[in-house]
Amino acid sequence: MRAPSRPAFLTPRKLAATAAAVLLNLALPIAQAADAPTPVAVDAGFNAASVAAKGFTIPDTKALKGITRVAVPVFVVDFVTADNVRTQTAGFGGFSRASSAMYYKLLGVGEPDFQTLTDAMYLGFLQRLTDSGLQVVGMDEVQATASYRKLAANGKKTPIKSDTNTVLSAQGLNVYGFARASTGVAKPSSGLFGGIAGMGDGFSAVGDVMESIELAKQLNAATIEVRLRVNFVELADHNKGFFGRLSNTASTSGKAFPSIDGVMVQVQQNEWRSSLTLNNALVLDPAVFAEVREKPTTAGDVAGAVLVGIIRLASNSKDSSSSTEMEAIADPARYKQIVGAGMGSLSDVVVARLKAER
């Protein structure tokens, strides 16, 4: 008769290996499948409990069970401020090659508005956790621990800014762990938060996992790390795929509206870590924009177009190209009100699922 198998003990080496796999997966680009989850509109009919019950992917729920006391030492929001899409045909079958590009830029709001929204969501999230019956550890107590001081010292300071993104942390907290591994300067559509900015950040994030376990133990609490992205435009490449590239025309398009996506919550309780990924993007009211317009043409733009035309004429090229630059101009008051309400709705969703899993 075979003896009953014993549960495998998670050694530090196994924990580090598992953490490395998780962190690398987090940094990979999100596949845009044909059957991607349908976005959910945050409107009068929005039901946080329904989205919480159906919208998350949670590979392992062990760290979510029996939680009574929590701390939130990492809370990161990535605001997309510019994006673009470009496509090109293959030029097969005697057709000339065609290309198309669409560029969008967010104007009217900036870092001070984004920081206000991030801090407000963080405080609202803590209050919702308290209202759900959990004891929330204050940041003073968190910052007094040796493990947090070590994690923060090795972490990144915000804002982390690029031409396309402004990444902010609530209350000016440093960013470490899985959130650090995905706050690089990169084009937002290249992956969740742009992927790993460098291998150094990836290795540091893996090392942070072991210290995060110690932090949870020192606090006698589950730690919750949150990251999300606030976008403002949806772009489309109409020549995707093999047959699209065989077309004799190239086409891209864009539509300005605010949304929240890239939502990932990590919970550490003792040696266990659970990841919650929200599959559905939350779509907000486009009334945040006072105007969406094509960028006014400058003398430099005209001169550049003329030069390109001369070069093509001289080379006898029959290739064609089109490029459109758009500006989405936000009304600051409406942006903060609507996006802030959407971020509050997201907090409702996350806390509802955490409560249901307890």
Quick overview:
The protein is of the alpha/beta class and 358 residues long.
- The coarse overall form would be elongated
Structural class: alpha/beta
Largest sheet: 10 strands, mixed
Number of DSSP-assigned strands: 14
Mean pLDDT: 81
Radius of gyration in whole Å, from Cα? 23 Å
Query: Roughly how many Å apart are the termini?
Result: 37 Å
Q: Compute the number of helices.
A: 10
Uncertain segments? 1-10, 24-34, 184-200
- Count of discrete structural domains: 1
Measured by DSSP, the beta-strand proportion falls in 25-35%
Which series of helices and strands comes N to C? HEHEEEEHEHHEEHHEHEEEEHEH
Fraction of residues in H or I helices? 25-40%
Account of the 3D structure:
This protein is an alpha/beta fold and 358 residues long. The protein has one domain (46-357). The chain is built from ten helices and 14 strands. It has helices at residues 12-27, 48-54, 111-131, 139-143, 146-153, 177-180, 199-219, 241-245, 299-315, 332-357, and strands spanning 40-41, 56-57, 69-80, 82-88, 98-107, 135-136, 160-161, 165-169, 222-237, 252-269, 272-278, 282-283, 289-294, 320-330. Strands 1, 2, 3, 6, 7, 8, 9, 10, 11 and 12 form a ten-stranded mixed β-sheet that branches. Strands 4-5-14-13 form a four-stranded mixed β-sheet. A hairpin with a 2-residue loop joins strand 10 and strand 11 (272-278). Helix 1 packs across helix 7 (199-219) and helix 3 runs parallel beside helix 10 (332-357). The radius of gyration is 23 Å and the shape is elongated. The two termini are 37 Å apart.
